């Protein structure tokens, strides 16, 4: 089981112990659901089983741009998630049906801080 963090809806995830890694997935969806919602829920379940997964945050603009930032302890955790069989199948279906386009950025976080109003 991973060491992911749960927070209330509408709250940002905390700054994690440094260093850690982020995977930024920016996408534009095709029209319609086409099974996307169900698969997204399944991927959310699966990623939580990856050792080193810390959490993720997502947002979508009214114009259709979606951004998901996933947090991982190390590169090995990212690779385990990237290579997971069901995730690979979902990626393939995403290219075939769900996305007009997307980009993936992977970065090492060397500095992080946050603020919470008391």
Question: In words, what does this structure look like?
Answer:
The chain is α+β, with helices and mostly antiparallel strands. The protein has one domain: Alpha-Beta Plaits, CATH 3.30.70. Helices cover 30% and strands 31% of the residues. The protein has three helices and four strands, in the order βαββααβ. A four-stranded antiparallel sheet has the order 2-3-1-4. This is Antibiotic biosynthesis monooxygenase. It comes from Streptomyces kunmingensis. Residues 19-92 form the ABM domain. Keywords: Monooxygenase, Oxidoreductase.
Largest sheet: 4 strands, antiparallel
Give, in order, the helices and strands: EHEEHHE
* CATH A-level architecture: 2-Layer Sandwich
Derived from helix and strand composition plus strand pairing, the structural class reads alpha+beta
Helix count from the secondary structure assignment: 3
Number of strands: 4
Tell me briefly what this model is:
Keywords: Monooxygenase, Oxidoreductase. By secondary structure, this protein is of the alpha+beta class.
Layout of helices and strands:
Elements: E1 20-29, H1 36-47, E2 53-60, E3 65-72, H2 75-83, H3 85-98, E4 99-109
Antiparallel strand pairs: 1-3, 1-4, 2-3
Helix pairs in contact: 1-3
Q: What attributes characterize this protein structure?
A:
about 120 residues, alpha+beta, Alpha-Beta Plaits, four-stranded antiparallel β-sheet, 4 strands
């Amino acid at each position: 089981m991973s060491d992911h963090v749960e927070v209330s809806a509408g709250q940002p995830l905390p700054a994690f112990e440094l260093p850690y890694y982020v995977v930024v997935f920016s996408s534009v969806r095709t029209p319609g659901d086409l099974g996307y919602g169900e698969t997204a829920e399944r991927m959310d379940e699966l990623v939580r089983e990856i050792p080193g997964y810390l959490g993720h945050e997502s947002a979508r603009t009214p114009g259709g741009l979606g951004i998901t930032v996933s947090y991982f302890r190390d590169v090995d955790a990212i690779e385990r998630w990237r290579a997971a069989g069901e995730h690979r199948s979902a990626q393939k279906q995403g290219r075939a049906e769900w996305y007009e386009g997307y980009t993936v950025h992977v970065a090492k976080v060397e500095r992080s801080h946050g603020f919470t109003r008391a």
